[in-house]
Amino acid sequence: MPQGKTGSTIWKAVKSFFSFWKDFLVGDSPVLALGVVIILAVAYLLRSYTYLAPATVIILVLALMTFTVWQKARKPRRNPQSQS
Amino acid sequence: MIDQSTILLFITVALASAVEATEALTILLASGITRGWRSTFEGALLALACLAIIVLAVGTALINYVPLYILRTVVGTLLLIFGLQWLTKAILRQTGFKAPHDEHDIYNKEVAVLSKDAGIRGKRDSLAFAVSFKGVLLEGMEIVMIVISFGLATRSGNQLAVASLGAFVGVAVMVVIAAVVAQPLSKVPENYMKLGVGIMLTVFGMFWMGEGAGVQWPLGDAFIPVLLAIVFLATLGLIAYFKRVHKEETEVSP
User: Fold this and answer.
1) pLDDT digits (tens, 9 = 90+) for B87-108
2) What is the total count of domains within chain B?
3) Any chain A CB within 8 A of the CB of B101?
4) How many domains does chain A have?
5) What is the DSSP annotation of chain A?
6) Residue B254: inside a domain, yes or no?
7) Percentage of residues in chain B with pLDDT exceeding 70?
8) Going by fewer Cβ within 10 Å, which terminus of chain A is more open, N or C?
9) Inter-CA distances, A11 with A4, A14, A15, A25, A28, Å
């Protein structure tokens, strides 16, 4: 079945393409990626407030950074020698 | 005239590229020494050519067809994600929650894998070619993303040439050092460099994402150093706090 074989090869290529970009952009921190998108939405909603908008973006970014470090520090470390 | 944001852009791209180059060079060194240099260089050169084509093709297409505010929003969001990923990992390494990046260890693991069936030096070696191609392409993709992002999103318009030059300088410095020492670049303060780059990517990401979304930063571009100071101080605070937490944890459970 050459057609089926070609289809499966294309499907595999498409899957590995998206999996590469998912690993590349999201990696092991989906909360972080989602958090950044939420901050973008908040920034857009508050854009007309001269001082509130920049202050909120800064506070949210620092909060997301703190939360991500706290979350990863709390995770049970099965492999403390992990390099990634 | 070279302005402050151009200098910051150049330094950030050069540092980020140097960090990624350190990791790629470890793979190349392991491949070259165990499997021979010919196929290793061929794989690396092909990967570099692919990366250059991506920068030119994607960069040019984005400049010509995508409005600046959309570019800044997308680029800022991506940079903020990258920056926070780098920064949180660097903080975890500084505080002891994550093992430091050890180029010697990575080199030894690569050598162990590549040593199997070695002994075809001088001839074409598909494994050496594939390993060096993949290593340079994957590490280089991050450089490409940073070059394109920084090159397109600045207030002064297209800075692709400055960003590309920064990447070239960062990589070239590491290649020269690697050629001189001819061993894994374990003495490069990679973790500190990642911390610095993480802070810079986070700041530029936050700034451009905000601008893209319509946020008016006080003082315009001059606010970037203020953001740098804020993120730097927050990073120092987190390192101090989580170092203490790690110390207490290790004292409680030896």
Assistant:
1) 999 999 888 888 776 666 777 7
2) 1
3) yes
4) 1
5) -HHHHHHHHHHHHHHHHHHHHHHHHTTT-HHHHHHHHHHHHHHHHTTT-TTHHHHHHHHHHHHHHHHHHHHHHHS--S-TT---
6) no
7) 88
8) N
9) 10, 5, 6, 21, 24
Whether B225 is covered by a domain: the verdict is yes
Rounded CA separation B155/B97 (Å): 38
**Cβ(B22)–Cβ(B185) below 8 Å:** yes
Is B137's Cβ below 8 Å from some Cβ in A?
A: no
Task: Name the residue with tokens 């998912």.
Answer: A22
A40-73 confidence digits (pLDDT tens):
999 999 988 888 999 999 999 999 999 999 988 8
**Half-sphere exposure of residue A61, counting CA atoms within 13 Å on the CB side?**
35
Residue B178 has what pLDDT?
79
Residue A82 lies in a domain: no
What's the rounded Cα separation, in Å, for the pair B8 and B6?
Answer: 5
User: In this complex, which of A32, A50, A53 lies closest to B81 when CB atoms are compared?
Assistant: A32
Residue B132 belongs to domain spanning: 4-248
> For B28-47, what is each residue's pLDDT tens digit?
888 887 777 888 888 889 99
Out of B73, B85, B245, whose CB is closest to A32? B85
For Cα atoms B151, B154, B158, give the angle at the middle one, nearest 5 degrees: 50
Q: Which of A47, A48, A69 lies closest to B92 in CB terms?
A: A69
Structural domain of A35: 25-74
Residues of chain A in contact with residue B92, where contact means CB-CB under 8 angstroms, are 69, 72-73
Residue B76 in contact with residue B153, Cβ under 8 Å? yes
d(CA B252, CA B239): 20
Residue B222, domain member (yes or no): yes
In a domain, A83, yes or no: no
- The answer to the question of residue A12 being in a domain is no
